[in-house]
Amino acid sequence: MYIPWVLLAILCLVCAIIGHNQAMPPPLPTALGVCSLAGMALLWRDVSSKMKGGKRSWSSLLSQYLAVKGVGWLGRRQRKTLEADTLNVKRVQEETLLQRLHKNENTSYGKQYDFSSIKDIDVFRSRHPITTYEHYRELIRRIAAGEEKLIIADKPLILAMTSGTSGASAMLLSTKDTNSEFFLQGVAVCLDAMARAFPATDSLQRTTKFFYSPTFRQSEAGIPIGPNSSTPASSRHMLNLYTTPAPAFEVPSEKDTLYLHLLFALKDPSVGTLESNFASTVFYAFSALQDRWQELVEDIERGKVSSALALEPAVRSSLEALMKPDTERAAQLRALFQDGFRGIAKRLWPHLHLVLAVDSGSNQIYGEMLRENYCQGVPFYSPFYAATEGLIGVNLWPQEPNRRYLLCPRSMFCEFLPESVLEEEAPHTLLMEEVTEGQNYELIITNASGLFRYRVGDIVKVVGFHNQCPIVEFQYRRGQMLSVRGEKVSEALFLDALKKAVTLWPGAQLVDYCCAESGIMGDSIGGSDPHYQVFVELKGVRNLSEEQRYRLDICLQQDSAVYRSFRSKGSIGSMRVQLVAQGAFKELREHMMAYSNTSPNTFKMHRVLRRKEYADFLLGKTVS
Ligand SMILES: *[C@@H]1O[C@H](CO)[C@@H](O)[C@H](O)[C@H]1NC(C)=O
Ligand SMILES: *[C@@H]1O[C@H](CO)[C@@H](O)[C@H](O)[C@H]1NC(C)=O
Ligand SMILES: *[C@@H]1O[C@H](CO)[C@@H](O)[C@H](O)[C@H]1NC(C)=O
Ligand SMILES: *[C@@H]1O[C@H](CO)[C@@H](O)[C@H](O)[C@H]1NC(C)=O
């Protein structure tokens, strides 16, 4: 008779999650209803119909069932709120803004800008300047040192590190609200959209979530500093949803954690979803699988964890307690791997319905590589547009190939700077209801945790409206443009040209790339006209001829009239293309994470290198 206890415990947890939002009383009557015996009989029928041949305990299935139902209910609710909000965007945005100003009106910062007297958007815009990180640097240093109520009324939970794609990494504040808001407005809504678009995900199959427990250091005042990151570390009760058991999340090394994610995923033939914040993490997981499959299969065969992993004895034994020698699965896996890695995901896990990971922006190439190779035939869903600055938009159209995000009117107060005025001194901003479809804008946000009229640095294109609310596509990072003579070649433009050039290099497959402006290279390359230094990692070719390399320059000239004109005038020199060794980008990524103190969960590859050291690192890896 221990099942009802499990049930009750889980219901309490679900209520606790829901209870986060005070406006919403815990659904106690529903809870009691579910507890009734009749309900349980029905429940069991439903549960058993959703199993896909996994061997799991009752309690684990049941708690997953309840978590899924609870989140489903929450998702439908949040979606309704969102729909209603999009019908009156101006009011919702003003409410959101004034609420935040009011909440922080008694901080030193709030007094300085006299937040308490601001009663509408226009006064706010006239009184508060547009800001960049410099505006906050000193304030955040003081918060790290222990000063309170400086910018925000709440005590910060962590100081989040951004991945620093546009220069040095920055430290931002993160509060309790950040997490619960992200869950309610982001995760719940996206899970709802996912359940509608991919009904098969409404099953009791487990998810493999490639997640790494971040390491934190502490500020002088004891506030953790680190990559900000969510689940599962923050929600251990959700662990039943995942193939990876709890002890694996305590393993500090990224490499070992990844091995364990793979090990427990391979053991379970009924995995339903692969999940990660970014497609790059999923891509690196499959390349590790390709490298280490023999070791993994042996472990499954023996029911042991490879001795190559440096695990604490207690962690190792609790992991091994969850394994039994499984020669049958091992033999099956061996046969599958020997057939090659194209489409391997669907062969390892025949009931795999979805890869859930952000694959827009700098993650686009990893998504494309996965779909062409390892994950052929599996749908992808890119759920949010988020930054360290918090939740910006949600993708309500999972099945569309273009990643489009609806801005969340209650998550942040947004302003828009038209692309043409980015360089102006005190430019006039537009509001959500004033933007034009088809135009590019830089986003300026005011959010719950102490950023006011902050230039995020992302340029987005408005591609339509949902009711009154803008839908955007990410275009590029302002700091990630190539500009040696003011020509401003964006990431999207460069990548398109590169992809065209790769098709002209027979047999070549793009693995990764980045660029540097010759200016930062200093003496490493000798004097010449300013030009682009391009580093590419390719599969399938060892060397490129000069003529083949030149193709990339031509492709970019075809796509960018401005670049072409500088090239034909001779004020920009010919692009230099260096081929780097296999695995060079994987190493670069580790190098960058260590330097900027970001974790694999939040890391984004830089497309334009701003530090000479990184460029030198790649020069050292050049093979041709
Ligand atoms: C700020 O201080 C004023 C005056 O002491 C008080 O009336 C107000 O409620 C405070 N605001 C907040 C959000 O605490
Ligand atoms: C950090 O940001 C992520 C999105 O990138 C979000 O899921 C999470 O709620 C934030 N975590 C913390 C601890 O602030
Ligand atoms: C607001 O911005 C802060 C600082 O970047 C960030 O850590 C947090 O996630 C954001 N808060 C919300 C509620 O989105
Ligand atoms: C690559 O090809 C170029 C010209 O085709 C040749 O000069 C060079 O030696 C080759 N490099 C390597 C490493 O094979």
From TrEMBL:
GO terms for molecular function: acid-amino acid ligase activity. Residues 405-477 form the GH3 middle domain. The keyword Membrane does not apply. Keywords: Signal. InterPro entries: GH3, GH3_C, GH3_M. It comes from the Eukaryota. Residues 1-23 form the signal peptide. Residues 496-612 form the GH3 C-terminal domain. GO terms for cellular component: cytoplasm. This is GH3 domain-containing protein. It comes from Champsocephalus esox.
